[in-house]
Write a structure and sequence with these properties.
InterPro entries: DUF805. Keywords: Membrane, Transmembrane, Transmembrane helix. This is Integral membrane protein. This protein has 123 residues and is mainly α. It has a domain of 80 residues. The protein is elongated.
Length: 123
C-alpha cells in the first residue's frame, strides 16, 4: 500500500510506462480518503464550505491552496490512468471513453480492473 502510494508521487508526471492494478487502486482510494479529510478540515476551520463563497483573504488563501492541491493530485491521477491503460495493453486515448455518460464510466472502470497483459508499453 505505501509503496504504491510512493510510486504515485514519484511518477507524478510520468505519462509513459505501466502501473499494475495495486499501483492504481491504492493511490485512488487513499486520495479519496485524504481529500474528504482535507475538505472537512478546511470547512471546519472556515466555518463554511471553502469553495462556495470567498469573503475574506483567509477564504481566498484556503480556496487557492485547496485548488492547487486538487490540480496536482488530478494531474498525477491522469498520468496514473494513462499508465494503467498501458498495463492492460490499451492506448491512453481510451481515457476519452469516460466522457460518454454512464456507459463510458462503466467501461472505463472495467478497463481499470483488467489484468496486466504483455504489451508494447512495458519498460
Amino acid at each position: 500500500m505505501t509503496s504504491s502510494y510512493k510510486k504515485f508521487w514519484s511518477n507524478l508526471l510520468n505519462f509513459s510506462g505501466t502501473s499494475g492494478r495495486a499501483d492504481y487502486w491504492w493511490p485512488v482510494i487513499i486520495n479519496y480518503i485524504l481529500g474528504a479529510i482535507l475538505a472537512t478540515g478546511i470547512q471546519a476551520l472556515l466555518g463554511h464550505p471553502y469553495n462556495v463563497h470567498i469573503y475574506t483573504l483567509p477564504d481566498f488563501g484556503a480556496n487557492f491552496v485547496a485548488n492547487t492541491i486538487f490540480f496536482i493530485v488530478w494531474l498525477g491521477t491522469l498520468s496514473l490512468k494513462f499508465r494503467r491503460l498501458h498495463d492492460s495493453n490499451h492506448s491512453a486515448w481510451w481515457i476519452l471513453i469516460d466522457l460518454i455518460p454512464i456507459i463510458g464510466t462503466i467501461w472505463f472502470f472495467i478497463l481499470m480492473i483488467l489484468p496486466t497483459k504483455r504489451n508494447r508499453y512495458r519498460n
